[in-house]
Design goal:
The chain is of the alpha+beta class. The protein is built from three helices and 16 strands. The protein folds into two domains: 49 residues; 144 residues, Glucose Permease (Domain IIA) (Distorted Sandwich), CATH 2.70.70. Helix 1 runs antiparallel to helix 2. The mean pLDDT is 90.
């Protein structure tokens, strides 16, 4: 298991501070703070983990872009949408749900409501990663939460992606939405636990 590069400052800084406090030996309070720092560092190792996976293979598959629990499955006149909540215990790395070309990456400033709030996906800070292929347009929305203060995209317009490629990370609890064309058959429901690059969200209807 590897660690995403954005996690290293969160891991190394509290670890170094904790070890320094232990070496200085300033007393019981210093030791308590040192232990807290080291525990925080270990938590960040867990949080920013990048476990090895086997990407699910198959024609017409649309895979989950993230780990978490399905908050909502909905549709309107033009698209179908799956919203996923990521707790602080979930892997926070996102993957491409389909193969295709990145046509746009758009940052939208906003608020930091709890990720499970009904309006969070509308008003919170977020990144939109738009991927297009022969079956239509797919939008991965990285949405900040009350603890998530940074949505990081690793891709740019013009990039060609394969299903399961790593596309970004969100720092701490958050939400990820996937907007899909209407011509898909949804395979998950509210409450389902999903795994990035593994769980089949939907299949394309030919």
């Amino acid at each position: 298991m590897s660690i995403v590069k954005e996690g290293y400052p969160f891991i190394l800084i509290p670890l170094a501070l904790g070890l320094l406090l232990i070496l200085l030996g300033w007393g019981r309070f210093s030791l308590i703070v040192a232990i807290i720092c080291i525990l925080a560092s270990l938590f960040c190792v867990y949080f920013f983990r990048d476990p090895a996976i086997s990407v699910t293979q198959g024609e017409g598959l649309i895979l989950s872009p993230c780990n978490g629990a399905v908050l909502e499955v909905s549709e309107n006149e033009t698209e179908k949408v799956i919203r996923v909540f990521l707790s602080v215990l979930d892997v926070h790395l996102q993957r491409a749900p389909v193969s295709g070309k990145v046509t746009k990456v758009e940052y939208k400033p906003g608020k930091f409501l709890k990720a499970m709030e009904p309006q969070a996906h509308i008003v919170n800070e977020q990144n939109h990663i738009i991927i297009e292929n022969e079956n239509g347009t797919y939008i991965v929305k990285q949405i900040a939460g009350i603890l998530a203060r940074r949505c990081v995209s690793w891709v740019k317009p013009g990039d060609e992606l394969k299903t399961g490629d790593k596309i970004g990370v969100i720092k701490f609890s958050s939400q990820v939405d996937l907007h899909m064309p209407k011509n898909v058959d949804i395979k998950v429901k509210k409450g389902d636990k999903v795994i990035s690059g593994v769980t089949v969200f939907a299949t394309v209807i030919k």
